[in-house]
Q: What sequence folds into this?
């Protein structure tokens, strides 16, 4: 009843919903459906042969492993950055705050050639690491660095607002009950931030899984070693295997859906968490 | 934003209306950028003198397989100039854009120039790389692109295999072991020849680059002869990068005549000379003699004699689950 | 209406709390300094050094070479194409964003959460796949390929394909900026305007738009940055025709692969400047509106309709 009443007052429901659905279908849904249709050209045997081939399995392992590690490193350092930005004052804070979003604003191709140049054995940073026998460009380490770069803002930007909204009374209470600073952090603050941290982690992880532009320049593209899944898909596309590329794409799409679902559940959980601990 | 867009659209329309020239799209592979830049200018001049028409030639470059795939998917090339016949065969077979016997339409199997695979090493050749067997030694780092996506890399792989067959008395198992050891020494497998040159010359990775002959000479020219040396192995392969008109596209664009002339002119003295100047081995005896000291004499095998043609070689070595895949199986 | 979604609208509260906080509430000075040092070190290593190196590499051959590269016809045509792609995709996604936000924020209908998830989808899809899907549909071997060829319409490996791929990857930006904003604002103002006799368009132009203008601007800035910088998706549908289907990021790749490293970085520096301008504009918008802080560039999941609303 309420619904029809509101529709009566504000106009444009049909127009905007219709347009939204039309545009969504044309740009997103129909093209994505094409992937599933195309991959169905393969028999189940061909499909499983493609998506479970040794190079594919190695690529999933690398994609998941490097993305996970990069997200984990970002979770630690991103948390510290968020903490420092919210809690402390220092020279250039505003600048650092604005700069955190650079990996989003900087096109991935630029990030790719920059990182590959910086970390090459004759680059600024690579040259410095080379004497220690540490190779970055064209190794798995290079992929990890690129994925860390592109995932950097996620943790900072998810933790930052929650940390800023955090009620200081709880900390005060912990302090007055005799908890030291570390205990207050670990027992009181950290649990309240963990949903946001997890959300940020999964977002960084999801982004890293699909990343192409920044990795393609720094990866050495060796099957079983430094081929992440998007590179493998690109290789299949270039090698006359459209259907097989779509088979791998379907696997990635399903994983993306699942991750999106997980992130939404996390968000729901963290909303509920915040709701039960009203600020 | 809107005005900017309007201006842009308007200006592009004006440009389109003002241009009364023939347009040609040449889809080529990676290392031919310089060759076709020079050749396009020469051909445009020739065509203008002959017919009075202006011809504007656009180029697209990338890994040979990738380029063929793009043409199959609708990149409207009037002519293709790719790294190997198999990629044009694929366009004929999968895209049905030109007849299957396209290779018979122009002289010399439709390859106006040939090339081969040589080694580019760092100045002084510190690892003493003289021949293919030096590449498979432990501690040598070899740069070559991925044969699955790069045409040059497929020629390279076959050259190495041909060497192994000759060395090990046509023993396939030993030859396979040899190329496996060689490819274990490859730290970076770029998707195209250009990427490999960057990795080796610019990034300083690897002891030796397995390169198209022309690409190796170009690297010497670009980076300085004081940095690298070219080493010719005892045996290599005659790489035949073919050219073909994409009939269906050219017909639709009304460019059949100019596309045909564009390819034929590659065989003219001027075309052959430009190829030679860009370090491709010309077919013309006359031009070849003029540039003889530019090319080291190497014993060259051909894909036809050694491997029974591209169809067979592709199937055996580079298809999925083929010989190349086995190299990386654990 | 009972909801109070953006607590951050009241920054004063937090600051007061910080100032009044007892000493025990903060870390010892050396821990503070250590944490600041770690944070700054991390930022310096991962953000500042790459940023500086772009310009250092770009200017390696001197200013003359730098400007010569930027004036090169190939570079100019890449810039033009990028402007066209962004110039078409940003307004269209803007229109979509407003429509989607209006329908989602102002009305109740079943399936709203599914719609929100679908709008989010392009964020979680690899750019390679985003480009590939259009090859499957419009490629010569794809669904509409033969028909398109018959009618001499080029989509893939031409400007329309590049625009489509750009639209896909920037699809959610404006929508996901406006939806939470309009949800937070509720519908009372619009309803009041209607009761007072305004028609639909008047309500939108006079009431809604002024309320969302900063959010809209914010979304447009971010959408534009991504549209101009997209690489993976566009590279799949481009065809790499020099001077015709190369956007700025693709031109960077071509120069880079062509051994012209300083040239590649010179063109890359354009995109880097764009990124810096984007960050500056973004900060400026945030300065004008406290509520937007931190909600945007990071594709945070959209706030779903809370279930407890019915209660």
A:
């Amino acid at each position: 009843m309420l619904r029809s009443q509101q529709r009566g007052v504000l106009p444009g429901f049909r127009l905007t919903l219709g347009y939204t659905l039309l545009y969504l279908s044309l740009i997103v849904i129909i093209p994505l459906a094409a992937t599933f249709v195309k991959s169905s050209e393969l028999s189940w045997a061909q499909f499983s042969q493609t998506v479970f081939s040794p190079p594919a399995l190695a690529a999933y392992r690398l994609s998941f492993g490097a993305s996970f590690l990069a997200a984990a490193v970002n979770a630690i350092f991103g948390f510290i950055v968020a903490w420092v930005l919210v809690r402390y004052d220092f020279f250039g804070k505003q600048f650092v705050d604005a700069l955190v979003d650079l990996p989003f604003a900087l096109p991935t191709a630029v990030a790719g050639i920059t990182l590959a140049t910086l970390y090459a054995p004759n680059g600024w940073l690579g040259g410095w690491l080379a004497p220690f026998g540490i190779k970055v460009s064209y190794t798995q380490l290079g992929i990890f660095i690129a994925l860390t770069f592109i995932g950097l803002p996620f943790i900072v930007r998810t933790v930052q607002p929650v940390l800023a909204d955090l009620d200081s009374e709880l900390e005060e209470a912990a302090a007055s009950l005799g908890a030291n600073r570390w205990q207050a952090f670990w027992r009181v603050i950290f649990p309240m931030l963990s949903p946001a941290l997890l959300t940020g982690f999964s977002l960084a992880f999801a982004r890293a899984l699909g990343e192409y532009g920044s990795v393609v320049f720094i990866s050495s593209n060796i099957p079983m070693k430094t081929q992440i899944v998007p590179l493998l898909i690109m290789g299949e596309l270039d090698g006359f295997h459209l259907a097989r590329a779509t088979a791998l794409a379907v696997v990635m799409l399903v994983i993306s859906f699942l991750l999106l679902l997980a992130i939404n559940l996390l968000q729901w959980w963290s909303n509920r968490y915040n709701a039960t601990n009203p600020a | 934003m809107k005005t900017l867009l309007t201006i842009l659209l308007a200006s592009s329309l004006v440009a389109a209306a003002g241009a009364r020239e023939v347009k040609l799209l040449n889809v080529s592979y990676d290392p031919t950028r310089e060759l076709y830049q020079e050749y396009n200018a020469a051909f445009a001049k020739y065509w203008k003198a002959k017919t009075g028409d202006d011809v504007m030639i656009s180029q697209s470059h990338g890994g040979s397989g990738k380029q063929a795939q793009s043409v199959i998917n609708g990149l409207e090339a009037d002519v293709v100039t790719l790294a190997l016949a198999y990629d044009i065969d694929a366009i004929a077979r999968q895209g049905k854009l030109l007849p299957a016997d396209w290779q018979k339409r122009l002289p010399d199997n439709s390859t106006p120039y040939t090339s081969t695979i040589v080694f580019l090493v760092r100045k002084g050749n510190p690892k003493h790389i003289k021949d293919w067997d030096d590449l498979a030694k432990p501690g040598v780092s070899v740069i070559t692109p991925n044969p699955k996506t790069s045409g040059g890399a497929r020629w390279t792989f076959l050259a190495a295999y041909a060497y192994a067959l000759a060395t090990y008395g046509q023993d396939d198992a030993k030859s396979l072991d040899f190329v496996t050891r060689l490819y274990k020494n490859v730290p970076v497998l770029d998707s195209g020849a250009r990427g490999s040159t960057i990795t080796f010359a610019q990034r300083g990775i690897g002891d030796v680059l397995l390169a198209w002959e022309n690409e190796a000479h170009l690297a010497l020219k670009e980076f300085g002869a004081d940095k690298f040396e070219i080493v010719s192995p005892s045996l290599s392969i005659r790489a035949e990068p073919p050219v073909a008109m994409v009939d269906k596209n050219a017909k639709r664009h009304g460019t059949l005549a100019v596309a045909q002339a564009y390819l034929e002119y590659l065989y003219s003295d001027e075309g052959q000379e430009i190829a030679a100047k860009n370090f491709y081995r010309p077919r013309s005896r006359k031009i070849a003699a003029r540039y003889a000291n530019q090319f080291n004499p190497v014993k060259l095998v051909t894909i036809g004699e050694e491997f029974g043609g591209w169809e067979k070689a592709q199937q055996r070595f580079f298809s999925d689950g083929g010989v190349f895949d086995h190299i990386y199986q654990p | 209406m009972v909801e109070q979604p953006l607590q951050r609208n009241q920054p004063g509260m937090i600051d007061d709390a910080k100032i009044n906080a007892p000493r025990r509430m903060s870390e010892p000075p050396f821990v503070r300094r250590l944490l600041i040092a770690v944070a700054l070190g991390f930022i310096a290593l991962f953000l500042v050094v790459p940023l500086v190196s772009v310009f250092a590499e770009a200017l390696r051959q001197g200013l003359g070479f730098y400007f010569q590269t930027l004036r090169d016809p190939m570079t100019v045509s890449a810039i033009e194409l990028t402007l066209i792609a962004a110039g078409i995709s940003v307004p269209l996604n803007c229109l979509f964003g407003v429509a989607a936000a209006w329908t989602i924020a102002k009305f109740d209908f079943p399936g709203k959460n599914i719609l929100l998830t679908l709008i989010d989808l392009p964020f979680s899809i690899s750019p390679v796949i985003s480009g590939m899907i259009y090859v499957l549909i419009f490629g010569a071997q794809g669904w509409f390929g033969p028909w398109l060829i018959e009618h001499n319409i080029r989509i893939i490996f031409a400007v329309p394909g590049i625009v489509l791929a750009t639209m896909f990857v920037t699809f959610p930006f404006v929508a996901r900026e406006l939806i939470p904003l309009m949800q937070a604002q509720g519908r009372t103002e619009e309803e009041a305007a209607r009761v007072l006799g305004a028609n639909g368009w008047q309500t939108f132009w006079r009431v809604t738009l002024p309320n969302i203008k900063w959010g809209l601007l914010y979304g447009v800035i971010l959408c534009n940055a991504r549209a101009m910088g997209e690489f993976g998706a566009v590279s799949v549908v481009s065809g790499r025709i020099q001077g015709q289907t190369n956007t700025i990021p693709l031109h960077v790749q071509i120069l880079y692969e062509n051994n012209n490293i300083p040239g590649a970085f010179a063109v890359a520096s354009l995109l880097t400047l764009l990124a810096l301008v984007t960050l500056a504009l973004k900060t400026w918008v945030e300065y004008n509106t406290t509520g937007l802080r931190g909600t945007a560039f990071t594709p945070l999941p959209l706030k779903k309709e809370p279930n407890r609303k019915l209660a």
Summary: Residues 1-5, 7-19 of chain B have pLDDT under 50 and may be disordered.
